[in-house]
Automatic annotation (TrEMBL):
<dbReference type="GO" id="GO:0000701">
    <property type="term" value="F:purine-specific mismatch base pair DNA N-glycosylase activity"/>
</dbReference>
<dbReference type="GO" id="GO:0006284">
    <property type="term" value="P:base-excision repair"/>
</dbReference>
<keyword id="KW-0234">DNA repair</keyword>
<dbReference type="GO" id="GO:0051539">
    <property type="term" value="F:4 iron, 4 sulfur cluster binding"/>
</dbReference>
<dbReference type="GO" id="GO:0006298">
    <property type="term" value="P:mismatch repair"/>
</dbReference>
<dbReference type="InterPro" id="IPR015797">
    <property type="entry name" value="NUDIX_hydrolase-like_dom_sf"/>
</dbReference>
<dbReference type="GO" id="GO:0032357">
    <property type="term" value="F:oxidized purine DNA binding"/>
</dbReference>
<dbReference type="Pfam" id="PF14815">
    <property type="entry name" value="NUDIX_4"/>
</dbReference>
<dbReference type="InterPro" id="IPR003265">
    <property type="entry name" value="HhH-GPD_domain"/>
</dbReference>
<dbReference type="InterPro" id="IPR005760">
    <property type="entry name" value="A/G_AdeGlyc_MutY"/>
</dbReference>
<keyword id="KW-0411">Iron-sulfur</keyword>
<feature type="domain" description="HhH-GPD">
    <location>
        <begin position="35"/>
        <end position="186"/>
    </location>
</feature>
<keyword id="KW-0479">Metal-binding</keyword>
<comment type="function">
    <text>Adenine glycosylase active on G-A mispairs. MutY also corrects error-prone DNA synthesis past GO lesions which are due to the oxidatively damaged form of guanine: 7,8-dihydro-8-oxoguanine (8-oxo-dGTP).</text>
</comment>
<dbReference type="GO" id="GO:0035485">
    <property type="term" value="F:adenine/guanine mispair binding"/>
</dbReference>
<dbReference type="InterPro" id="IPR023170">
    <property type="entry name" value="HhH_base_excis_C"/>
</dbReference>
<dbReference type="InterPro" id="IPR029119">
    <property type="entry name" value="MutY_C"/>
</dbReference>
Length: 344
C-alpha cells in the first residue's frame, strides 16, 4: 500500500534515535510506553532513563517500595500510571516468573495496559499484526483520509482502530507502527504542520480540502470543577512539620501532602484561625504564604490553592523533620511550594 510504504520509507530516513528503539525487550518497551502515555518524549525521556538505571529489570522494579517508585515518578503526573506500573511489575515478576505475556490478548490483562500499549508491545516485541492508535496516529489518519468522526468517542475509536488495522504493514508491523507515531509527532503535528515538505501531501484529503486545522475532530470536554484547597503547613521551633499520605481513589493516592482542608469557597484568615483553634490546644500564629490563589489545573478540576503557615512551639510524635521533606513523594503542586518556601 502506498500509504504504509511511504511512511516506512520516511521513517527509515527520519526516525528519532531513542533508547527503547534499540531493543525488543518487553520490559523496556512496556516501561517506555507507560511513561510516555500523555507525556511528550522530551519530558518522558529523563524519567525512562532514571527508571532503567534504578530498576534495570522487572524484578528490581517489583521489589522496590511503592514510595520509591512514586518519588522517581514525581512530576510526571497521572500517578495512577505509576501505581499500576508497580502492581504490574509485581504480577509479572512474582506470578509470571518474570516473563511478560507474548500476545496482545494476554497483554491486555495486565493492570494499566490498554489497547494502545498492548498493540505497541505485541507488534514491537513479538511482531504481532496489531496497529497502534494514539493521538499521533489519530491525527495522521484523520487528516490523510479526511475522517471527521470525533476521536474521543467509542464510535470514533472503533472507526479509527479499523482504519489503522487496514493500513498496517503486515510484513513489518513494528516498523510501521513506530513510523506512523513518529510521523505524527514530528511531521503531521497539531500546529505548524509541515505540509510543504510532506511526502503524503499530494494524496492527503485534509491538505487538498484545506482541513488541516480542522481535523481531527474532538468533542469538547465538560467544564472542570472548581475546588478550594487549603494546605496547613505546621512549623515547630525544632524544625518539624506534618505530612499525611493520601488514601482512597483520588489522583494523588499514595502521595504525601501537608494536612488539607477543602472548602466550598475561599476561606478567610479569621474563619480558618477559629477552625484551627478548636483543634489546637497550644498557642499558634497563622499566616498566609500566597495572597493570590495558586491555580493547579487538572483535566477535570481546577484546584484553587492556598498554603497557610502555622507556627507552633512543638508537634506530636508523628511529625517529621523539615530536612526529610525531600524524601517523600509529593504532588508537583506541593513540590513547587517546598521549593519556593524558605524552610530554614
Amino acid at each position: 500500500m502506498v500509504f504504509s510504504q511511504t511512511l516506512t520509507n520516511w521513517y527509515s530516513i527520519n526516525k528519532r534515535d531513542l533508547p527503547w528503539r534499540n531493543t525488543v525487550e518487553p520490559y523496556r518497551i512496556w516501561l517506555s510506553e507507560i511513561i510516555l502515555q500523555q507525556t511528550q518524549i522530551k519530558q518522558g525521556l529523563p524519567y525512562y532513563q532514571a527508571f532503567v538505571n534504578a530498576y534495570p529489570d522487572v524484578k528490581k522494579l517489583a521489589d522496590a517500595p511503592q514510595d520509591h517508585v512514586l518519588k522517581l515518578w514525581q512530576g510526571l503526573g497521572y500517578y495512577s500510571r505509576a501505581r499500576n506500573l508497580h502492581e504490574t511489575a509485581k504480577h509479572v515478576a512474582y506470578n509470571l516468573n518474570g516473563n511478560f505475556p507474548d500476545s496482545y490478548k494476554d497483554l491486555l490483562k495486565l493492570k494499566g495496559v490498554g489497547d494502545y500499549t498492548a498493540s505497541a508491545i505485541a507488534s514491537i516485541c513479538y511482531n504481532e499484526k496489531k496497529a497502534v492508535l494514539d493521538g499521533n496516529v489519530y491525527r495522521v489518519l484523520s487528516r490523510y483520509f479526511g475522517v471527521d468522526e470525533p476521536i474521543n468517542t467509542s464510535k470514533g475509536f472503533k472507526v479509527f482502530k479499523a482504519l489503522a488495522q487496514e493500513q498496517l504493514d503486515s510484513n513489518n508491523p513494528a516498523n510501521y507502527n513506530q513510523a506512523i507515531m513518529d510521523f505524527g509527532a514530528t511531521q503531521c503535528t497539531p500546529k505548524k504542520v509541515q505540509c510543504n515538505n510532506c511526502p503524503l501531501s499530494e494524496s492527503c484529503v485534509a491538505y487538498r480540502k484545506d482541513l488541516v486545522d480542522v481535523l481531527p475532530v474532538k468533542l469538547k470536554a465538560k467544564k472542570p470543577k472548581k475546588k478550594y484547597y487549603n494546605f496547613l503547613v505546621y512549623l515547630s521551633t525544632d524544625n518539624k512539620t506534618f505530612l499525611e499520605q493520601r488514601t482512597g481513589k483520588g489522583i494523588w493516592k499514595g502521595l504525601y501532602q501537608f494536612p488539607l482542608l477543602e472548602t466550598e469557597k475561599p476561606i478567610t484568615h479569621t474563619d480558618l484561625k477559629k477552625q484551627i483553634a478548636n483543634n489546637q490546644k497550644q498557642a499558634f500564629d497563622l499566616r498566609l504564604f500566597n495572597t493570590k490563589d495558586i491555580v493547579h489545573k487538572l483535566s477535570h478540576q481546577h484546584l484553587h490553592t492556598k498554603f497557610w503557615i502555622i507556627d507552633v512551639q512543638e508537634l506530636s510524635e508523628n511529625s517529621i523533620l523539615i530536612s526529610e521533606l525531600k524524601n517523600y513523594p509529593v504532588p508537583v503542586l506541593i513540590e513547587k511550594f517546598i521549593e519556593a518556601f524558605n524552610f530554614s
